[in-house]
Amino acid sequence: MQIDLTDKHFLVTGGGRGIGKAIVQQLLSSGASVSFTYNHGKETAEFFFHKLSAEFPGKILLYHADIKDEEQSKSLIVEIEKSPLGSLYGLINNAGITMDSPFFSMTTDMWISVLDTNLNGTFYLIKAAIRSLIRKKNSKIINISSISGVKAAMGQANYGATKAAIISLTKTLALEFAKFDLQVNAVAPGFIDTEMVAKMNEQDKKRIHQMIPMKRMGKTEEIAELVTFLCSDKSNYITGQTFIIDGGLTL
After folding, report:
1. Is 78 exposed, middle or buried (0-12, 13-18, 19+ CB in 10 A)?
2. Every domain of the chain and the residues it spans
3. How does DSSP assign 32-66, residue by residue?
4. Candidates 38, 63, 124, 159; catalytic one
5. Among 7-21, 155-169, 179-193, 201-215, which is the least confidently predicted range?
6. What is the pTM of this model?
7. pLDDT by residue (tens digit) across 48-96?
8. Strand order through the sheet with 242-245
9. What is the pLDDT of residues 138-171, one digit of tens each?
10. Answer CATH for 9-245 from 3.90.1260.10, 3.40.50.1820, 3.40.50.720, 3.40.50.300
11. Is 38 a catalytic residue?
12. What is the DSSP letter of 172?
């Protein structure tokens, strides 16, 4: 399916690695302009930015932002709106963190840190960008959730709570913003072969493969292709939905 996002500007948070990185690449390949953020991993993000700037000149911008800081989120949107790439057409809330722990040993700081980034950060950015987005016809918000928001996972009380809340937030915003022709959807990946997974030992990888009916982890490109479809005009009648992409793990 050919998707054309020419003249459309998207913001991807946490776009310097993993799923976010694949989303940035796929959007650019589909003709979009892309701003993306990083909080940690400056060298990695800048290397990625310079590589794509050479391939897609004038189509990409990089910003440092800690999205759990409301003022930084507001300033980020103001700066992006003034950028040469033009006003935002879509927002992909991908940035997130994990601080896994059994509940008995989970600290208040671990709980609050994950909620601040994953949930509050998503809220701050949508709040900051919404007035710009509703001025466009069929603009898009894509929230990256997780199967941990659908299926319980040991040690992820904090992470799972944020990802389940993001699904609920997605539904509510889809209902409220439908009258503005703004579509809001969520994507809930399962185990995806990212840089973090690459550091796992082979025994753990094999155990995970056995849990998944398709007997493999997903590819970041597979998530990016779904997100790109949801960013396109081909998804204009889809809103409030959560797309689980997990190789059948939650069946």
Report:
1. exposed
2. 9-245
3. -EEEEEESS-HHHHHHHHHHHHHHSTTSEEEEE--
4. 159
5. 201-215
6. 0.96
7. 999 999 999 999 999 999 999 999 999 999 999 999 999 999 999 999 9
8. 60-64, 33-38, 9-12, 90-93, 139-144, 182-189, 242-245
9. 999 999 999 999 999 999 999 999 999 999 999 9
10. 3.40.50.720
11. no
12. H
Please compute the mean of the pLDDT values over residues 118-147 and round it to a whole number: 97
* Cα distance between the two ends of the chain: 27
pLDDT on residue 241: 98
Q: Cβ distance 220 to 18 under 8 Å?
A: yes
- At residue 221, what is the residue type? E
Three-state DSSP at 241 gives coil
Structure tokens at 250: 């939650």
Under DSSP, is residue 245 helix (H, G, I), strand (E, B) or coil? Answer: strand
How many Cβ atoms are within 10 Å of 46's Cβ, its own excluded? 14
- Show Cβ contacts of residue 134 under 8 Å, excluding neighbours closer than 6 positions: 177, 180, 182
